[in-house]
Write a structure and sequence with these properties.
39% of the residues lie in helices and 19% in strands. The chain has 398 residues and is an alpha+beta fold. It folds into 4 domains: 1-81, no CATH class; 83-188, Rossmann fold (3-Layer(aba) Sandwich); 199-274, 2-Layer Sandwich (Uridine Diphospho-n-acetylenolpyruvylglucosamine Reductase, domain 3), CATH 3.30.465; 283-394, no CATH class. The strands form 5 sheets. A 5-stranded antiparallel β-sheet has the order 3-4-7-6-5. Strands 8-12-15-16-17 form a 5-stranded antiparallel β-sheet, with helices on one face. A 4-stranded antiparallel β-sheet has the order 9-10-18-11, with no helix packed on it. Helix 4 crosses helix 7 (151-166). The relative contact order is 0.08.
């Protein structure tokens, strides 16, 4: 409420909208939202309300829902989010991160570089309250702020007062650590931007040569910064796993991370990408309608001898499209010995981002076509045989 009144007085033309979120915790939450609505009516400012009932009663759920709402409103207004976080909020946040054993990224807290504007971050909560009382700014104290059910409240009400009793400079020390952590975080972010490449598909990669020689601790800090570029916050376990994988992982190997992500090792780089099966386990190929299989679209069409994206398949046999599997082999047209599909893909320089999902066409249990890579004699046009011809289109942006 203080930020609202100060902004309306000093920067009214810059206010695109006033957004408030009802966490659905009861009468106090509704009362707070209604207070903001009345203030906006009095100040003739646009008001947007979000939230309500149905949100899980936890700090994390409230925070996620609130931020999703605020960013949605800001995007619609082509504006930035401004919050009234105070110096005390930063102290509490940093202490929470200390208790969790966070590194520089976490210890930076609200000092980290961000698109969010926090004009009151250097002002303590007592000063803000005093300003409200002296200026006649109406505000509401949410009773949930006194509940020791929530970690932040226990830190505010119990732990911090106890620590200040032992060390009166505790707040200043925590803030100093946070400022230095923010500097380290900023340097790591700059380093990560220089080393990595982010694709349109949301995959980020770092050249293997750039990662050689670093310790697990250094790699962990670097990968946290790299992951942040695609919106992924690596947890402690994920950070450890990708650091070890960078040192020990083999080409074409992968390791699962949290949030549906994985690390994948190419010959010349390590990729961080969304883990996905890519295409169904098996899909029948037949009929006149095109079928979409992940990033691959199969359509009836004519065969061009030199175009490996086309194939003439036996019409009297069951045809199935599925991802290639470890151990799959195919006898390429004009040869007599079976060779691993993995080798065909490697020779064709299929990128690691797509290799694990690349489809094969199977006829009666035998791989006969690797679209865009190789065909067997069974997928090549031959006179006197009943055939069905297919063209495969590949959208490498997916």
């Amino acid at each position: 409420m203080v930020m609202l009144h100060v902004a309306a007085s000093a920067h009214r033309a810059r206010i695109a909208a006033v957004a408030t979120f009802d966490h659905g915790t009861g009468a106090a939450s509704r009362s707070a939202a209604e207070l903001v609505r009345r203030a906006c009516d009095a100040l003739d400012l646009p008001f947007v309300l979000g939230g309500g009932v149905g949100i899980r009663r936890s700090e994390a759920a409230w925070r996620d829902a609130r931020w999703a709402f605020l960013h949605t409103v800001a995007d619609a207004q082509r504006a930035r989010v401004a919050t009234a976080h105070s110096r005390d909020d930063q102290v509490e946040t940093v202490l929470m991160r200390v208790l969790r054993g966070s590194g520089a990224r976490g210890l930076a807290g609200l000092y980290a570089e961000s698109a969010v504007v926090r004009p009151l971050l250097s002002v303590d909560r007592g000063t803000i309250r005093a300003f409200a009382e002296l200026s006649g700014v109406e505000f509401v104290d949410d009773p949930t702020n006194e509940s020791r059910r929530f970690l932040r409240n226990r830190i505010r009400l119990d732990l911090l007062p106890a620590l200040r009793g032992v060390c009166p400079e505790m707040d200043a020390q925590l803030l100093d650590v946070s400022r230095r952590a923010a500097q380290v975080r900023g340097a790591l972010d700059e380093w990560a931007r220089e080393l990595s490449f982010v694709s349109e598909a949301g995959m980020v990669a770092v050249a293997a040569s750039q990662l050689a020689g670093y310790s697990r601790e250094s790699l962990g800090a670097l990968w946290q910064a790299v992951a942040a570029q695609v919106g992924l916050a690596l947890d402690r376990r994920g950070t450890e796993r990708i650091a070890v994988f960078t040192i020990e992982g083999r080409v074409a190997g992968r390791v699962q991370l949290s949030g549906g992500w994985e690390a994948y090792r190419e010959r010349d780089r390590v990729e961080l990408r969304r883990a996905t099966n890519g295409i169904p386990k098996a899909l029948a190929l037949g009929g006149v309608r095109p079928i979409q299989v992940g990033a691959w679209r199969f359509s009836p069409g004519s065969v061009r001898a030199e175009d490996l994206w086309t194939a003439a398949l036996p019409a009297d046999m069951a045809l199935v499209v599925r991802p290639w599997q470890a151990g799959d082999r195919m006898v390429a047209a004009g040869t007599t010995r079976p060779r691993r599909v993995k080798r065909f893909l490697s020779d064709a320089h299929v990128s690691g981002r797509h290799r694990s999902r690349w489809p094969v066409v199977v006829s009666n249990g035998v791989v006969v076509w690797i679209p865009g890579v190789r065909r067997s004699d069974a997928a090549t046009a031959r006179p006197g045989r009943s055939e069905v011809s297919y063209t495969c289109e590949f959208d490498d942006r997916r």
